[in-house]
Amino acid sequence: MEVVVGRVAKAHGIRGELAVDVRTDSPDERFAEGAVLTGRSRNGGTTRLTVAAARWHSGRLLLRFEEVPDRTAAEQQRGLLLLAEAGELPPIDDPDEFYDHELEGLRAELTDGTVVGTVREVVHSPGGELLSLDRDGAEALVPFVREIVPEVDVDGGRVVLDPPEGLLDDAAETAGTPGDTAGRDESSR
What we know:
This protein is mainly beta. It is 10% helix and 45% strand. The strands form three sheets. The protein has a six-stranded antiparallel β-barrel with strand order 1-2-5-4-3-6. The chain has a six-stranded mixed β-sheet with strand order 11-10-9-8-13-12. Strands 7-14 form a two-stranded antiparallel sheet. Strand 12 and strand 13 form a beta hairpin.
């Protein structure tokens, strides 16, 4: 299984560097010189990319890949998702931290055991992480905070929710409306 560790935002300069939005907690490991990643385009095509150089510039990671020799080639990479193998991820020592792929597909249930949906994905927003739940075809976004998600049982295949009144009601009203999808990020807190 592959997980998203970055997304190409734009070309930078004339030598084929790419400005990357980082989606990993360990960019120095993921984007080390010689690291091999899979690039997935919006149309689903994939390509293997080898990191030739990485540097930080004005708070953004700039990458150069052996397979992207110049700005013309770099321009064609805009929006490319950068993927790494989940099996290569380092273990997490913090019991309150999880990789996104560990949460996706878990059964979501209330504290009384009532099943309310399935975790589609973890959405990383400026305000923090959200669990996107599939509730019979409708999407519900649940803040991934201890007060609302008091228990995560990866081995048991479930997350336990204690939502405030009304949080899950909106999803029932929008059943059948497709939600936006996003790539999986490497880790979530």
